[in-house]
Amino acid sequence: MLYLLPAYLSEHSPSDYFAPAICDIIMNVDHYFVENEKTGRKVIKFFAPEKKQSDLKLFLLDKYSVTADLKDAQNMMKEGVDFGILSEAGLPCIGDPGNIMVGWAHKNNIRVIPINGPSSFVLALIASGFNGQQFSFHGYLPIDKEQKKKEIQNLENLVGKTGFTQIFMETPYRNNQLFDDLIKFLNPNTKLCIAANINDPETEFIRTKTSADWKKSKPELHKIPAVFLIGK
């Protein structure tokens, strides 16, 4: 079996935000696909602090991975070894490469079991006040300045034409630059929601304002996990 396991959005997330089944699964599964070994071990310790770290066998699954790199793990799964997939934050396979192994599992008739947990973009969407019936999640915007400008303006146009909410994110250390670009390129009346530190009881920040209003009160987003939404 292949378990799709949620990770916390914040290290300060209360444990009762999560399904009790997660701890039981982690206690019984030793093999995991992770984007980063250090983060993977921290997440496992968060849910099952009594589990021996020495029992863990972690396989790197990042944006550079291809299924050919994961032959050892695949052979083990074919032999009946259970695996879990852990994202850096939130649910796996959304904004991360976990889908590679999920697709392979389906092709090889291995049961895939998703476990419920927090998704930053879904929580941001329901808290934004925007259209939650029709929306698009774009992951990360281009790094190149000119391409980013075109993409921001394209997303804004899509909101105007369709009413669909447009959702995207950025690497936390580039959040402030993205905010500056959004304020620079969006029309003053366009509504922008910023949802940062979601699920952190102390520092969670979710606000929806026009671009013009955001210009008057710039938030500090450097190295803070955040989701950005444009909508109506």
Automatic annotation (TrEMBL):
Keyword Flavoprotein: no
Record-level Gene Ontology MF annotations: methyltransferase activity
Alphabetized UniProt keyword annotations: Methyltransferase, Transferase
GO biological process, one term: methylation
Name under which the protein is recorded: 16S rRNA (Cytidine1402-2'-O)-methyltransferase
